[in-house]
Amino acid sequence: MKVRIDEEACIGCGVCADICPQVFEQTDDKAVVIAGANCDEAGCCQEAADSCPTEAIIIEE
Ligand code: SF4
Questions:
Q1: 27 lines ligand 1 (CB under 6 A)
Q2: Is pLDDT at 1 greater than 90 in this prediction?
Q3: CATH code given to domain 2-60
Q4: 9, 12, 23, 42: which could form a disulfide with 37 (CB 3.0–4.6 Å)?
């Protein structure tokens, strides 16, 4: 499972980093996927994607 963030859609709300800090990191105004982060190990990417208010988190199987 791979994850990425649509930078255009992300509003930097910080929800994903709160839910899944192993994978997502909040920067000044956007969230980013932490380099080398593993969604399968973290087990919280789907919850973060479901909770993103702008559906900016894209999960690719
Ligand atoms: Fe961006 Fe969505 Fe994360 Fe909020 S939850 S910081 S909008 S990717």
A1: no
A2: no
A3: 3.30.70.20
A4: 23
